[in-house]
Every structure is written in structure tokens, then in C-alpha cells.
Specification:
Belongs to the arylamine N-acetyltransferase family. 27% of the residues lie in helices and 29% in strands. The chain is of the alpha+beta class.
Length: 259
């Protein structure tokens, strides 16, 4: 059963539970550090876009598997659980959806990615613990100002009616992560998009590719296929893991935070 005490223990939080920006920042980062993104159960290419429609989760079952059982999860599982936790703690949480940038530079289908928005103290914050990465480790204020976290910069730019989230590592150029409309969503919205999603070219998204990622105190590890990205204080290092032993070591390091 979903249990706030067990969840917070998993995240290592022992302080105040009063809704605040400090708590929100801490919980998002702790979540990304403690619970990895892992699409191993959802990377079957034969299932096609079915994996994009399974956004309505059984909180208790996913809680048992992820928080108690120790496995990772994907966006609708991780952000769904986190949305429940924040709601239980008294935060005002809404649902947002995004199209993620693909390897060919195009955006994926609408509502491909589900994440959260928290309204707090007259501001709105993007809250996301379910993006493979590289991603923002703490919530981002919904503003056009440049925001910096752990050596990386983030900004939101307007483009064709969308907010485009862009990221820049140290010494790098701005690049898009995903785009979204400033429109709160309902879980039922995903089922209404079945025809649109079915028509989207499957080869343009990363379905069928294993993706694992996890944050640490000042950065993040992201493994897409055999391409390994490690970010430390905003500095990126990219390797292609051709050695089976090196590949297994990185997977183990990402999926077992206490190893």
C-alpha cells in the first residue's frame, strides 16, 4: 500500500513536511538520486506506442515494485508516484505533458512525456523525476529567465505556441529537451490521443532502446543503448561502451544506488 512514511524513508528525508520550495527542491533531487529511470520493462519495440498510453497507474502496485521493491521506472510511474506523494504532503500539483526531442532532432508525439507542475507561493514550478536525462535535478520556475543548477543552465523559450525547455552544459550550446503547452492535463487525455499516436512513425522515437539514468549529488549518469553520458558539475563526458564488462558495470552503478 502507498505509504508516505515509507516513501520519505526511501528518499532519506527526515525533516519538516510542511510544503515549501526548500522541501520541493530536496524531494525532487532525492528522488532522482534514490530511484533510477529504467525502461527495461517498457522497451519492447513490438508493443509500439502502447507504452505511451499506460499513464494510469495502480499507485499501490507501482509503489510496491519501485519504492519497496527497488526497481526503477519510467515517466508515468515515477511522476505518478511523486505526484501522489506531493499531494499527500499538501502541495498543489497539476499534470503537464510534453513531446521529447528525438535523436533525429524532431519532437516525439504529443503527450509522449508526463510530468508535474506545482503551484507554490504565487509561482509555478516544473517538477520532473521521470525524464531519462540529462535533466534538471531540482524544480524549474516557469519563467523566461535563465536558471542554473549544478553547472548546467536551463531556459524556456516560446516556439509555435509551445514552451521549449532548453539546456546548456558548460562550454556547450543550447539544446532542446522537450516542448509542452501551458495546459493542465487529465489522465483521460492520453486515451483520446490513440489515433494520433498510432500514426506517428515508430522509428522516430526510442521505443525498443534500453535507457537507464540516475542522478548523484552534482550530476547525472545517462545510458541510452551503449551511449553513456556522465555529467559532473555541468561538464559532460560521453563514451560508447563497447566492452560488455564496462556496460554491465555502468548498468549496475545506475540501477543500484547503494552499490
Amino acid at each position: 500500500m502507498f505509504d508516505v512514511d515509507v516513501y520519505l524513508h526511501k528518499l532519506g528525508h527526515t525533516g519538516s513536511r510542511e510544503p515549501s520550495l526548500a522541501l520541493l527542491n530536496e524531494l525532487q533531487k532525492r528522488h532522482l538520486t534514490a530511484i533510477p529511470f529504467d525502461n527495461a520493462l517498457n522497451a519492447d519495440a513490438e508493443r509500439g506506442f502502447d507504452v505511451l498510453l499506460e499513464v494510469e497507474i495502480d499507485d499501490d502496485a507501482v509503489f510496491k515494485a519501485v519504492v519497496e521493491g527497488g526497481r526503477g521506472g519510467v515517466c508515468y510511474e515515477l511522476n505518478g508516484l511523486f505526484r501522489r506523494l506531493l499531494t499527500e504532503l499538501g502541495f498543489d500539483v497539476r499534470i503537464l505533458a510534453a513531446a521529447v526531442i528525438q535523436v533525429n532532432g524532431a519532437y516525439g508525439p504529443e503527450l509522449e512525456h508526463i510530468f508535474n507542475c506545482v503551484e507554490l507561493g504565487g509561482e509555478r514550478y516544473l517538477v520532473d523525476v521521470g525524464l531519462a536525462g540529462p535533466s534538471y535535478l531540482e524544480p524549474l520556475r516557469l519563467t523566461d529567465e535563465v536558471q542554473e543548477q549544478y553547472g548546467c543552465q536551463y531556459r524556456l523559450v516560446e516556439e509555435d505556441g509551445y514552451h521549449v525547455l532548453q539546456r546548456r552544459a558548460k562550454g556547450g550550446e543550447w539544446s532542446a529537451s522537450y516542448r509542452f503547452k501551458d495546459q493542465y492535463r487529465r489522465i483521460s487525455d492520453w486515451r483520446e490521443l490513440v489515433p494520433d499516436i498510432a500514426e506517428f512513425p515508430l522509428e522516430q522515437v526510442l521505443i525498443g532502446t534500453r535507457i537507464h539514468s540516475r542522478a548523484f549529488d552534482n550530476g547525472q549518469m545517462v545510458l541510452i543503448g551503449k551511449r553513456y553520458l556522465r555529467v559532473v558539475d555541468g561538464v559532460e563526458e560521453i563514451k560508447v561502451l563497447t566492452s560488455p564488462s564496462a556496460f554491465k558495470q555502468v548498468v549496475r552503478q545506475i540501477l543500484t544506488p547503494d552499490a
